[in-house]
């Protein structure tokens, strides 16, 4: 027997123990890559097996949604009853824990896993779900094949956490601070592993250059994953919180999964190794990752399956008018079902290509589904029927050969062809000279504006709408052989009856249309249009559209061109200058005394004047009775009369009126006016109103506008000159006369302010007197001033010296025209 050295014996025993330990681990295998039918339950496996040859005691088994988990809607359940199993679902981690009693058997565990189901409460669930099934508590991520564990250790430093993680093992796998290199890892380690903890990233070697320095990345000398602060760049993957890493407090060199409720769930921030004073920014533990290290054993203590929700894409289709459309679709998994309603409804097709026949725009609804499922997420696919362009395949369009050369060639206005193709203003029409260019809308050989058929009698119209639908029409151009009779002309005449006699009037051209149509054989659907000149008529441009209200543009007379076309085909039947418009002038004349005619005669002569031509006249009284038909008539009754003149064509003038009034303006003389002065009061009166005339009169003093009164007497009239107005109540005029009322002011104020600066007589009528003498005295009888003329006045001074305020006396001596003398005396006040 070979005796081994002691140290070799120990090494061999350790190796045997290690091999035995790892060899005895249970082995899990699972299969399942299924399609999920929304709002249903589905087993997470299609098959599952557990081999436990070593007889390892299994106290629990863990099923976790390790990828794609949606908290609040995703659910794992043990959908059967097992006496040796209790189960609980942790919604925060997306993990179902099945705890076993000591009497559990392997077959019971297998059947329990097969009874675990997944469901989601939302109808619009999306994405894929990966399930990990493991006998250990660490979370398993199928995409990495690694295990992850959160270790609680309040206020542990990053360095201590790194050392502790390296000291941990999991079924023989070497632990290390987690290096998170994918979103699946970030979600599993952050959102589904509750706890704020250290991970293996740091920039302590170079500020702003973040590297993974633990695990396989650490063995490789560190792997950079971020460069810079907030808004920096990554070449791999990073999951920093908003505004991180920011090194706010300095020395924040270590990556840490943010505490729950701080910013983006499961994201990272940078901390000092001891954390901060706020509990929200203190380490509560660390994340250990197992797997990927040299010497790690191959384990089968975890298995994974997948449930997928189909993601579809679809392409709708459109066509011009009714017919078949081609709808195509793809799906990530499952079969493609087409429905006629967003929910429920009928299954109308299955497959990637669907070719329904439609007459109106129709919505179909596509879902990727598992066989037998009808609750998949449906997307709308539109099969659109676009508006067709309905133009004829071929038309013939003719124009008249009225260009002065009867050679069968003439100009065609292409825009005039469009109404024969379509009345839809939303359709655009382009003309081409070749069929190929029209069919392809090439943009070459385009015809526009005016086209002469000498270049070809067939052109092509490409008609299209905004939807891209189009149709091509062959247009055959034809030169008409019909025409109006030679020298045919029709005249429309009207009177220049508007306010201005300018030879302009408004015509209803439709009154001539029947005469135009009568020049061609009956029984045809012809239309008449009018133009200002021959070019417009030939090219059908600038048509006079308001035919019933056209105002001539040349004074007195204008010639219009007439065009007659077939209203159905647009073919020209005749063009020419066949309508003559004539504006007849209306009578122009005056009436003597138009308005009112006042007279005291027993008969009255009414007459016209300034007539511009020889007219027929009609005179009427107020009752409408004709009282004369000559330019001048005599009537013997007052009243209202009217006259209207007519031309030989029948154009009537405006009606002119004259009112005959048996009255006259007043005749007034000074002999019929009396001024009475008694007791310091003055009165003006008309002595005998009957001498004024035959009218009915009223009186006003000082203002022609009035106030007028019926009485011919005015009391309390102030001294001075006054105008008496006498007005005829019938409107036959106002007469006036100046009346003098003699008097003398009671005071004056010679202060040069423009008011009462001088004292003198008022109302002194020089026509009644030959001489005047006015003497002014002071209170002591001293003569101060003598005035000798009718308009003389005193300024309150003597010998150029102003006199003081006081009472002063005057004596007036007036010599009348007949030699008699009148005297007046009194006193007045000088005020300064």
Summary, kept brief:
This protein has nine helices and 65 strands. The protein has 832 residues and is mainly beta. It has a six-stranded mixed sheet with strand order 2-21-10-5-8-7, with helices on both faces. Strands 11-12-20-14-13 form a five-stranded antiparallel sheet.
* Beta-strand percentage range: 35-45%
| Fraction in helix | under 10%
Mean pLDDT: 91
Counting helices, strands and paired strands, the structural category is mainly beta
Characterize the structure shown.
The chain is mostly beta strands and 832 residues long. Helices cover 9% and strands 41% of the residues. Strand 62 and strand 63 form a beta hairpin. The radius of gyration is 61 Å and the shape is elongated.
Brief descriptors of the model:
single chain, 832 residues, five-stranded antiparallel beta sheet, 65 strands, disordered N terminus
What layout of secondary structure does this protein have?
Blueprint: H1 6-23, E1 27-31, E2 33-35, E3 41-43, E4 47-51, E5 60-67, E6 74-78, E7 85-90, E8 95-100, H2 106-114, E9 116-120, E10 128-134, E11 139-141, E12 146-152, H3 158-167, E13 169-170, E14 173-177, H4 183-191, E15 198-202, E16 209-212, H5 215-219, E17 223-227, E18 254-257, E19 268-271, E20 285-290, E21 302-308, E22 312-315, E23 317-320, E24 323-324, E25 327-331, E26 335-339, E27 347-350, E28 353-354, E29 357-358, E30 362-369, E31 379-386, E32 394-400, E33 411-413, H6 418-421, E34 428-432, H7 435-440, E35 446-447, E36 450-452, E37 458-464, E38 470-480, E39 490-495, E40 506-507, H8 513-517, E41 526-531, H9 534-539, E42 550-551, E43 557-566, E44 572-584, E45 590-591, E46 595-598, E47 604-609, E48 616-621, E49 626-628, E50 632-635, E51 639-646, E52 656-661, E53 673-678, E54 681-686, E55 697-701, E56 713-715, E57 720-728, E58 734-741, E59 747-748, E60 769-777, E61 783-787, E62 797-798, E63 801-802, E64 806-816, E65 821-830
Parallel strand pairs: 2-21, 23-31, 32-38, 39-44, 46-52, 59-65
Antiparallel strand pairs: 1-4, 3-9, 5-8, 5-10, 6-9, 7-8, 10-21, 11-12, 12-20, 13-14, 14-20, 15-16, 15-18, 16-17, 18-19, 22-25, 24-29, 25-28, 26-27, 26-30, 30-31, 33-36, 34-35, 34-37, 37-38, 40-42, 41-43, 43-44, 45-47, 47-50, 48-49, 48-51, 51-52, 53-54, 54-56, 55-57, 57-58, 60-61, 60-64, 62-63, ...
């Amino acid at each position: 027997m070979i005796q081994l050295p002691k140290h070799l014996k120990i090494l061999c025993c350790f190796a045997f123990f290690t091999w035995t330990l790892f060899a005895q681990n249970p082995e899990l295998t699972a299969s399942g890559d299924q399609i999920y039918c929304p709002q249903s339950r589905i087993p997470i496996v299609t098959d599952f097996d557990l081999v436990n040859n070593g007889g390892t005691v299994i106290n629990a088994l863990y099923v976790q949604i390790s990828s794609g988990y949606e908290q609040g809607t995703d659910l794992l359940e043990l959908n059967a009853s097992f006496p040796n199993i209790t189960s609980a679902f942790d919604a925060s981690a997306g993990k179902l824990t099945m705890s076993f009693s000591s009497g559990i058997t392997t077959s019971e565990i297998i059947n329990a896993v097969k009874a675990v189901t997944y469901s989601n409460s939302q109808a619009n669930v999306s994405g894929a779900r990966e399930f990990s099934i493991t006998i250990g508590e660490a979370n398993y991520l199928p995409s990495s094949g690694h295990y992850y564990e959160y270790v609680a250790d309040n206020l542990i430093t990053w360095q201590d956490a790194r050392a502790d993680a390296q000291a941990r093992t999991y079924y023989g796998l070497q632990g290390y601070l987690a290096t998170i290199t994918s979103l699946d890892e970030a979600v599993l380690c952050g959102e589904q592993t509750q706890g704020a903890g250290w991970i293996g990233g740091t920039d302590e070697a170079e500020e702003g250059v973040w590297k993974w320095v633990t695990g396989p990345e650490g063995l490789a000398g560190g792997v950079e994953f971020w460069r810079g602060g907030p808004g920096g760049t990554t070449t791999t993957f990073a999951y920093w919180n908003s505004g991180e890493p920011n090194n706010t407090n300095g020395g924040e060199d270590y990556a840490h999964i943010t505490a729950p409720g701080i910013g983006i769930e499961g994201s990272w921030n940078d901390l000092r190794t001891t954390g901060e004073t706020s509990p929200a920014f203190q380490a509560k533990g660390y994340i250990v990752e197992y797997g990927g290290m040299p010497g790690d054993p191959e384990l089968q203590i975890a298995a994974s399956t997948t449930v997928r929700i189909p993601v579809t894409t679809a392409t709708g289709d459109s066509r011009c008018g009714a017919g078949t459309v081609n709808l195509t679709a793809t799906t990530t998994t499952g079969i493609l079902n087409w429905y006629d309603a967003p929910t429920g409804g009928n299954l109308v097709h299955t497959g990637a290509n669907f070719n329904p026949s439609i007459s109106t725009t129709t919505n179909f609804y596509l879902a990727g589904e598992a066989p037998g499922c009808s609750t998949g997420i449906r997307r709308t696919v539109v099969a659109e029927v676009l508006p067709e362009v309905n133009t004829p395949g071929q038309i013939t369009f003719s124009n008249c050969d009225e260009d002065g050369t009867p050679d069968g060639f003439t100009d065609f206005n292409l825009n005039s062809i469009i109404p024969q193709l379509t009345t839809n203003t939303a359709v655009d029409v382009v003309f081409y000279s070749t069929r190929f260019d029209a069919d392809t809308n090439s943009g070459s050989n385009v015809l526009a504006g005016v086209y002469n058929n000498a270049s070809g009698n067939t052109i092509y119209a490409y008609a299209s709408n905004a939807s891209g639908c189009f149709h091509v029409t062959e247009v055959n151009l034809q030169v008409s052989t019909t025409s109006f009779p030679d020298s045919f002309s029709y005249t429309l005449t009207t009177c220049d009856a508007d306010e201005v006699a300018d030879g302009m009037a408004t015509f209803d051209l439709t009154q001539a249309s029947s005469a135009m149509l009568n020049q061609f054989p009956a029984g045809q659907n012809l239309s008449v249009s009018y133009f200002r000149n021959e070019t417009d008529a030939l090219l059908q441009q600038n048509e006079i559209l308001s035919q019933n209200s056209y105002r001539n543009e040349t004074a007195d007379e204008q010639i219009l061109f007439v065009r007659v076309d077939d209203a159905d085909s647009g073919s020209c039947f005749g063009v020419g200058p066949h309508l003559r418009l004539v504006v007849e002038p209306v009578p122009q004349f005056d009436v003597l005394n138009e308005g009112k005619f006042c007279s005291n005669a027993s008969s009255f002569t009414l007459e016209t004047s300034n007539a511009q031509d020889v007219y027929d006249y009609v005179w009427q009284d107020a009752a409408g009775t004709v009282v004369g038909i000559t330019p001048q008539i005599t009537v013997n009754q007052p009243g209202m009369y009217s006259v209207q003149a007519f031309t030989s064509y029948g154009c009537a003038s405006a009606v002119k009126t004259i009112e005959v009034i048996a009255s006259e303006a007043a005749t007034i003389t000074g002999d019929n006016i009396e001024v009475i002065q008694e007791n310091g009061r003055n009165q003006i009166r008309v002595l005998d109103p009957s001498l004024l005339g035959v009218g009915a009169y009223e009186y006003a003093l000082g203002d022609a506008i009035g106030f007028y009164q019926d009485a011919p007497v005015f009391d309390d009239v102030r001294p001075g000159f006054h105008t008496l107005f006498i007005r005829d109540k019938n409107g036959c005029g106002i007469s006036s006369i100046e009346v003098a009322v003699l008097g003398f002011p009671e005071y004056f104020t010679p202060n040069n302010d423009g008011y009462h600066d001088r004292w003198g007589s008022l109302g002194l009528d020089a026509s009644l007197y030959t001489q005047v003498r006015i003497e002014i005295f002071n209170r002591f009888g001293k003569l101060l001033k003598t005035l000798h003329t009718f308009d003389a006045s005193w300024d309150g001074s003597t010998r150029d010296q102003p006199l003081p305020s006081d009472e002063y006396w005057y004596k007036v001596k007036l010599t009348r025209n007949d030699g008699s003398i009148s005297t007046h005396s009194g006193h007045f006040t000088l005020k300064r």
